[in-house]
Amino acid sequence: MKTKRILATAAMLAAASGLVACSSDDGGGGSDASNCTNTITKKDLPAVTMWGWYPNMQLVVDNFNKQSNEVQVCWTNVGQGGDEYDKFQTAISAGTGAPDVIMIEMDRIPTFQIQKAIVDIKKYGFDAVKANYGEGAWKDVSVGDAVYGVPVDGGPLAMIYRKDIFDKYGITPPKTWAEYEQAAQKVKDAGGPLFGDFGANVPALTMALQIQKGASPFAYDSASPTSIGVKLNDQASKDVLDYWGGLVRKGLVGKQDQFTPEYISGVINGQYATYVSAAWAPGYLTGAGVGKGQDTGKFAVAPLPQWDPNNPVQVNWGGSAFSVTSQSKKQELAAKAAYGLYADKESLTDGWTNQIIFPLNLTALNDPAFVDLKVAFFNGQQANKEVYVPAANAYKGMVYSPFGQYYFDAMTKQVSEISAGSITGSQAADRLQEDVAKYAKEQGFTVQ
């Protein structure tokens, strides 16, 4: 994929030679607010440009502009995810063309930080908004002590399950992974469906599950940008891969790639009793046709099973942030916009009401309307109160690497080998460690 090649090359150059792709004093084309998707009404105020892709960004930007008496936002959607990153990478390489504010998935922040393409916004009013988000949310947008984004949404993990299948086979939601395997065996022995799925194409989920067990895949700090800790074959990482590999080998869970028509069809038709996924999953599943027709009202959600129920660990999959680019000539104003976008109650409410996001702003997480919501997908269950909000509040954050896409691709390859029965989980972890550590060294990192 083009994005992967470009980002890997840029990260290598930045790490090995201290490349500064652009600076706040460079010209840059991002501050030209003459071509906006939205209409700016307060034309006497300075404007900053922004790239973002969520479906309700028009509303979010308009709400911010109505309330702000300091700065206006000129918004453009240049594409979602990889499409936007390709354009941003082109602007980084050219030293011009980036916006003032850019929407970035949290796991991509170190990739752009190491190129000095985004800036630390701590000096631009961080203390005034720090209390708006939890510890885990801030850690996910930070590299060391520096803050490179403002959290927007996240994906605390939980276990979605089919109530009809659980009722039929006398299963109660497992509280531990040992109970999960026992329940899976019980359903199989009774001739029931697969209990879950171990997809190779969801490496971020696998990483999160390893972190839940106690793994710390990476140690990376912007204060030491050419040094990185890579620990992918510790006992916790091996345990998780061996656990899921064992479930596949015993025929208790499937090995289907997720987000495919075949997998979604299986979810709809009751081929899986559980779906371990993030808080954004209900919105995705609804959009994919799940929970409609004959499977309406058959889904519920329970907390993520734990390894040690006396010491529960909550983890996250996914999430985005607003970052300020180093090409911006108006970094302080851009930071004010990043802090204020998707932070007002109307925008947040629209986001979670339409299942566009699972908000991380505590204004929403503490809002009774959100907490007490009876979620239609879960047949009226108060999923936020019972599962997702407690998980989000307990989440402590994780450390991402500057070459996250390479790591995810390597993880996908190894999980595929596990599911094919070619190697054990422990062997996969050893191979992954060797592969990623070698790659890191090739990019100019000192691997700890």
TrEMBL record:
<feature type="signal peptide">
    <location>
        <begin position="1"/>
        <end position="21"/>
    </location>
</feature>
<dbReference type="InterPro" id="IPR006059">
    <property type="entry name" value="SBP"/>
</dbReference>
<protein>
    <submittedName>
        <fullName>Sugar ABC transporter substrate-binding protein</fullName>
    </submittedName>
</protein>
<keyword id="KW-0732">Signal</keyword>
<dbReference type="InterPro" id="IPR050490">
    <property type="entry name" value="Bact_solute-bd_prot1"/>
</dbReference>
<dbReference type="Pfam" id="PF01547">
    <property type="entry name" value="SBP_bac_1"/>
</dbReference>
